[in-house]
Amino acid sequence: MIRRAPRTLSLAATLLLAACGSQRDPVITEAMGALSGMWRTEPAAKPQRQVTRADIERANVAAILGRVESDKRGTVLYATADNGGYVTYVSPLMQQVTLKGAEITATRGLGTDLLSGWSSSPDPLVRAIPPGSWPARVERVYEFPGEGPQGRIEEYSCSFEPGKPAEQVILKVRYTGVAISETCTGAAGSFENLHFVDASSGAVRRSLQWIGPKMGHLDMQVLEPYTP
């Protein structure tokens, strides 16, 4: 069954709701603490300091590094809200990436955004599955801006290739795992995703996912995994 992702809340709405409620979401509380010390903007003349592994460990908040094809450095985004398993990560420039597990289900502020994305079940990006047990195929559906309130819907059938042993260094931490390619085809065309996962659990550590014909791929690296 294919389940559609709910639209993401904006950061302003999320923080406003948290502030007005009698109990603040602990995820938001932690994230706001990190923001107060790490998201101060520098004058335009000074280059922005690169985030280090020590920064991530000190913040103690789930974080990812996101980089679109046109961006050479990428941006660190911190988890600020969990909406029924859809976790929204926000950058210092208020760019947003929403993940369900490791599947990118929406973006905001990156350009021509992915309004919503969803997939059939089981999807190893949504729930970690050992690489040897990944399904042969997954159906993916994407909603992009278009004419009319519903936007433009594109559907793709995606197949996985057997994984190969690989190593990745993510913010100065070396991981061993399995690299798995995913080929998707549909009426609008085709594309390929790449995933680097833990060889035992299948947990995704890095993923290159297509987010639309104009934006291309988003390189998503897990710096600190999210724990509900």
Could you tell me the mean pLDDT?
84
Tell me the number of structural domains: 1
Work out the helicity level.
10-25%
Form type? globular
Identify the CATH homologous superfamily.
YmcC-like
Biggest beta sheet attributes? 14 strands, antiparallel
The CATH class label is Mainly Beta
The end-to-end distance, rounded to whole angstroms, is 24 Å
Q: Total strand count, please? A: 14
* Count of DSSP H/I helices: 3
Question: For the CA atoms, what is the radius of gyration?
Answer: 17 Å
Please tell me the CATH architecture by its name. Beta Barrel
Task: Write up what this structure looks like.
The protein has helices at residues 11-20, 26-38, 53-59, and strands at 2-3, 63-68, 75-83, 86-90, 96-100, 103-108, 116-120, 137-144, 152-160, 164-170, 173-186, 189-197, 204-212, 216-224. It contains 3 helices and 14 strands. With 228 residues, it is mainly β. It has a single domain, classed as Beta Barrel (YmcC-like fold), CATH 2.40.360. The radius of gyration is 17 Å and the shape is globular. It starts with a strand and ends with a strand. Strands 1, 2, 3, 4, 5, 6, 7, 8, 9, 10, 11, 12, 13 and 14 form a 14-stranded antiparallel beta sheet that branches. 13% of the residues lie in helices and 45% in strands.
Chart the SSEs and their pairings.
Elements (H helix, E strand, L loop, with lengths): L1 E2 L7 H10 L5 H13 L14 H7 L3 E6 L6 E9 L2 E5 L5 E5 L2 E6 L7 E5 L16 E8 L7 E9 L3 E7 L2 E14 L2 E9 L6 E9 L3 E9 L4
Antiparallel strand pairs: 1-7, 2-3, 2-14, 3-4, 4-5, 5-6, 7-8, 8-9, 9-11, 10-11, 11-12, 12-13, 13-14
